Every structure is written in structure tokens, then in C-alpha cells.
Amino acid sequence: MFKDEADFEKVVGRLNIDTEPNPAHRENLRRQMLSVFNQAEQESATRIIVFRTLRRLTMKSPITKIAAAAAIIIAVLIGLNIVGTSTPAFAEIVKPFLIARTASFKMTMEVEGVPTQTFDCFYAEPMRMRQTNHEQGAIVISDFQQGKIVTLMPAQNKAMIVEMENLPEDQSKFNMFREIRKHLQEAQDTEDESVQFLGEKKIDGLTVIGYHVQKPAVDITVWADPQTKLPVEMTNTSGPTTYTMTEIVFDVELDESLFNLEIPEGYTIRTMQVDASEPTEDDLVEMFRIWAKHMDGNLPSVLDMNATMEFVKYQHKKLKEKGQEPSEEIALELQKTIMRMGRGGVFVQQLPAESDWHYVGKDVKFPDAEKPIFWYRPEGSETYRVIYGDLSIKDVAPENLPQ
């Protein structure tokens, strides 16, 4: 209940609704808002009022403004300071991610059909990352200003250097922390319904509140301490893979040696060059070509991270049938092949939802010229690009697409 006229004025001011000069409209708004407050208290829950939605209303009638305001308030249980605890806004929760110069956190990576991997991670501006794998003991250090990724395997005294060529201006997609930061910034800046409040839950006995960001190619959930407004846990899901960040500490002091790209003495070193330019349709076709060559004419069952596991398992099966062991040389060549095919996978992942892409190549054998395996609509195009089993490409009108 409102304590006095000042409390009511505070709420009306936040809603940006002009209730003058008709006093009846003002009293109507007071009654409707009191009803909502009572409902919120009975249900013992709080939510954020969607102020920016109200600001976008362009109706001129005070009556319709009041009705719209009441409808939106009823649709979301409220949490204003004048009726109890307030819920930290999304911008407050994600702010540490957006301004941190450094961060440390633990990460788990879960992929369907693959054992869970865990990592100790450190991030430092600009675009540097260090990840230590608990299960394998491998250390991966990346510095995209230098265009290098170094993988150290201390147990075997071995190192792999990946030199990235043709790096694009926006390199955030190569650095997990920066990519998450980019998505959170876009979600904060965009006035749409991609950000949803999840309410409360407990993590290790601590009551936290959550927000979910979901849009094409983005699925991020943040859980934070409502008192400190600091993130406690974040999950980032991409296809069959889910990354979970915990034990997150921002602006921690990190020794520069953590990001040293020099290889320790006594290590055997292998070097690989990787084209990091933006992938194209040609890269997707090349991926299908390489796949068919190494998979006895078969094409991928799916186009996500499970495809990589399918490819690796098949190669191991072929080695076993030949009575061969997966030597270091074979493993290196396999890694190079997977990275070459990876550009095609990235092309698909970066297609917007509007491209309406489809893949149906699971049971198609190369070179079947009659069977379509993939189609999508390029931006601004009225026709679709259709790739067939022989890897030929045709422009097809929407009404003539495969059913």
C-alpha cells in the first residue's frame, strides 16, 4: 500500500504516464495499482516492471495509457522499492562482465555423448585466455592480438602452435569470454524480449536470481547474488554443447607469465597455420567434399559438434579394421583435417535464423546429383541456394524447395 502521495507520485513518475488534467484517471490508476500490489504480496514474489515497454507506447489517451500500464503491471509481478525488496536489473547483473579487465573462473564443458571436461580459466585484456584441462592436463594459451594459440602437454613434453592468418576485425568469436561479453552487451542495448527474468533459486545454499538471454545463436543464463549483484554462475549453450562458468572473480590480479606464449625448453613443437577469415559457402562445400573423401562417400548425419565426434569415431574404426594404432602423426593429420572442415561448420553456425537453413544429407551418398542435402536463403535473396549430393549448387524458388 502507498504510504503517502509521494509514493504514488514516485510510481507514476517511473511509468512516465501523464494523468492530468482528469483527476478520475489518476484515481483509477491508484486503485488498479493497489490491487496489483496486494496480489504481489499474496503470491510472495517480485518481478521487474517493463518500463521500456511502457515508454514505447505512443497512445495519446490517458485512459488507454492507464489500461495498458495496468495490463503490463499485472502481467509481471512487481518489485518496486516502495513495496519491499527490489530485484537488481539485468544491466546491474551483467555489468561486471562488460567492464572487467581480468577474470578467473572454473568452466565445465558438456557435449552430448562425450565425457564432461573441466577447466581452470583466466582471462585478461586484450583478448588473452589461459585454460587448463583437469582431465588431460593440457594447457591452452591464446593471444589473438598476436594471432597465436599455444597448446602445452606437460606430461608428454609436447607443444602445438596454431598461427591464425587473415584474422577479422571482430575477433570476439575466437575468445569465449569476449564472445559472451559481446552477446550480453547486445542484449542490454537492444530493447526487445530476448531477456527474461527467471526468478530465484539456490546454488550451494545461496539464494540467487537469474536472467535468460535467448535469440538466434545465443542462449545464455546468468545467476547472480541479489545483494552483491555479482554473477555466481553462467551457462552458455551452443548446439549440443553447454559451457558452465562458476567461481567467477572479476578484476583479479593475474601474473603476466600466465599468458606467456614461449615454449618451455625440451618440448617437441609442431606448428599449424589456420585461415581465420570469415567462412563462405565455398567452405561448406569443401567440408562436404573432405567428409565424403574420408568417410567412404557418406555425408554427415548432423551439422553440429556431434559431427566432429562422428568423424573421429569413424576414422578410429577404419584404423582398427586395418590393425593400425592412432599414432601421433595420424592424430596430427586428423586434427588438421578437422580444422579445415571446421570453416564449413562455422559458416552454418553463423547463418541467421532468417536464412531458414535445412540439412537432410544424413542418408545421402556422394555423388548423388538427384538428392538435395542443404539449402538456405542468402540475405536479401528471393531464392534459396540448394546443395546436392554431388555438391552442385542451384538457385531454387521457395515453392520448388524439397518437401
Please identify, by name, the CATH architecture of the largest domain. Clam
Q: Per DSSP, what share of the residues sits in E-state strands of 2 or more residues?
A: 25-35%
Number of domains: 3
Radius of gyration: 27 Å
Q: How would you classify the helix and strand content by structural class? A: alpha+beta
Distance between the termini: 59 Å
Tell me the helix content. 25-40%
Summed over residues and divided by their number, the pLDDT gives a mean of: 79
Biggest sheet architecture? 12 strands, mixed
Number of strands: 16
Shape: globular
Determine the CATH superfamily of the largest domain: Lipoprotein localisation LolA/LolB/LppX
N-to-C series of helices and strands: HHHHHEEEEEEHEEEEEEHHHEEEE
Low-confidence stretches: 15-21, 35-85
State the CATH topology of the largest domain.
outer membrane lipoprotein receptor (LolB), chain A
